[in-house]
Amino acid sequence: MRLLVTGGAGYVGSHMVKALLRAGHSVLTLDDFSTGRRPELPGEILVRGSIADAPLLDAIFGEAPFDAVLHFAARSIVSESTRDPAAYWASNVGGTLVLLEAMRRRGVLRLVFSSSAAVYGDCGARPIPEDALRRPVNAYGKTKLAVEHALEDWETAYGVRSVRLRYFNAAGADEEGELCERHQPETHLIPLALQAAAGERGPLPLYGEDYPTQDGTCVRDYVHVSDLCDAHLLALARLQSGQSGAAYNLGNSRGYSVREVLHGVESVTGMRVPVRKGGRRPGDPAVLVADSARARRQLGWRPRHEALGAMIESAWRAMAGHVTPRASAVLSPH
Ligand code: UFG
Questions:
Q1: Whether residue 20 is found in the same domain as residue 117
Q2: CA 20 to 30 Å from 265, out of 14, 95, 205, 206?
Q3: Atom 5 of ligand 1: nearest residue by CA position
Q4: Sheet strands (E) in the chain
Q5: Is 329 inside a domain boundary?
Q6: Count of structural domains, the chain
Q7: Which residues surround ligand 1 with Cβ inside 6 Å?
């Protein structure tokens, strides 16, 4: 297939580009490099630009017919979205509407959308099925939900079919350790804990120990980035076979508290993670654990890296290949 990947320089997007190229597809990556960072991968066409640039999208779609779009480009930091919701609505919703209209103009009628567990908020269901109440508690989740609603309308009215993949907490890195999770700034628990263990940064702030969970810290469902890529390939196959759009949860249906993740990091690295009390972070739901039975049943999705330890280990290996010389001296294989 000939595919457009928006946000293909980001964490999940770059793993996806690699997986698509490996599967023999032709890939054009569109990224504004506002947060993503990586060199061009052999075989891809990399375009620097925005999903909100309608003339650029017309030029891209006018070059050659595209079979589908994989839409990763978005702002995705929950805490930032509560401080600056306007930026999130403009990029995540405004930008996506420009993209959808360009697709419609050019007759590109298949889309795989990176949605999020954040659409559920504190919905109360444990684990969360796809038909649970979607009541986001932060602006990031609200923008993802708004796009999901738009996609439902675009499918009914204009025949743009879409698979909405609701990621729970993406973790880990590709097996070769070529790509890794390194946001600028980094806000995610596993890379931060690894960096704190390696002495690359100071103590990790523990955001809240008074949640209604077993040890008072938030519980999340971690899913390996390569398993997310597998789900995208299956979603593309679903659309390619002419089936209707749908929404799927992508998680392992097993929750880990922040403290459990920190223990996992300590046992993988053999180093202590220094922590400090941080107080609750605005916009954090207490528990997010997926019921992913629908993705397994309808897409045939089978996560291959379910163990949290294996996810942390792959993140640690990849990080060792991407750190500064000073920090790499501290990293030792475990
Ligand atoms: N945490 C800390 N200290 C830190 C960083 C995180 O205690 O320095 C805690 C957070 O409070 C949260 C947990 O670790 O309880 C996980 O936090 P992350 O920032 O790694 O991930 P989030 O759960 O906030 O968000 C991620 C994605 C979202 C997605 C969500 C879905 O970034 O895009 O998972 O579950 F919506």
A1: yes
A2: 14
A3: 189
A4: 2-6, 26-31, 45-48, 68-71, 110-116, 161-167, 169-171, 204-206, 219-220, 222-224, 246-250, 256-257, 275-277, 287-288
A5: no
A6: 2
A7: 76, 78, 116-118, 168-169, 187-189, 192, 204-207, 218, 220, 258, 281, 284, 288
